[in-house]
Amino acid sequence: MNQTAESLWFVFYKDELLLEKEGNGTFAIPCGEIPPILIKDKTTVHNITTLEGRNCKAYSVSQPIEETEQYAMIGLRASYEYLPLGHYQAAGKAHEILHWDRNSLFCSACGTPMEQKESIMKRCPSCGREVYPAISTAVLVLVRKGDSILLVHARNFKGRFNSLVAGFLETGETLEECVAREVKEETGLDVKNITYFGNQPWPYPSGLMVGFIADYAGGEIKLQEEELSSGDFYTRDNLPELPRKLSLARKMIDWWLECSHK
User: Fold this and answer.
1) How many CB atoms lie within 10 A of CB 34?
2) Beta-strand relationship, 190-202 and 46-51
3) Where does residue 25 fall: left (phi above 0), alpha (psi -120 to 50 degrees), or beta otherwise?
4) Do residues 143 and 191 touch, judged by C-beta distance below 8 A?
5) What residues does 165 pair with on adjacent strands?
6) How many CB atoms lie under 10 A from the CB of residue 100?
7) What local confidence, expressed as pLDDT, does residue 236 receive?
8) Is 27 helix (H, G, I), strand (E, B) or coil?
9) Mean pLDDT for each 10-residue chunk of the chain (262 residues)?
10) Which domains are assigned to the chain?
11) Engineering a disulfide at 94: which of 58, 158, 230, 232 sits with its beta carbon 3.0 to 4.6 angstroms away?
């Protein structure tokens, strides 16, 4: 596909994304040869990727942009409901790059201001240290027990929904070891038959979610109270509120529902 002079502009204030109103309650990423909002001096404009023959560029603003007849700011998570999937994913990548940029201004070894050398690499001009965007890897685990699955409510959830056991990968362990450890730590249960399901970038702010299916192998539920407020096995007929469609956890639950219906 030929490149055009127009760019897709991903403009963020913290986790709020600037969208252009198209009428009838629909929105789009601003597109044009010039940025939709004035770029102030010393603002870095990042080249994120290409999409539909257009360059995707991202930058941050220092204060929220008031809603106008043309533009509105919407949270990145909420933008999933309004944008084509490819545009939402590009917005997620833009958010991750901007988060990395804000948090890597100075060399962690000697304190010298870092210099951007490539789209995802900075180098310290004093000691030569190079830094790249850090990605925090976490596992999601769908635990099956007969005709039910394990669902939990974490204390840090913003809402009443239940989801899958999740936790961050630790240094020196495999993903499968992380699965077994997290389920054991958070619920007291043992699992077996751990199999890979899929993965998803999770730009809140810079994660990679890796999903696994596992079978119950033994134990009684004993919740890690500082992490979870509730947890139990549920059949398809008594499911609690579930996570939103944008998450890998929901995709895994929907997969189980489809399989259990056959």
Assistant:
1) 10
2) unpaired
3) left
4) yes
5) 141
6) 19
7) 95
8) strand
9) 79 97 93 95 94 96 94 97 96 98 97 96 98 97 98 93 98 98 98 98 97 98 96 97 96 94 68
10) 5-101 (3.90.79), 103-133 (no CATH), 134-257 (3.90.79.10)
11) 58
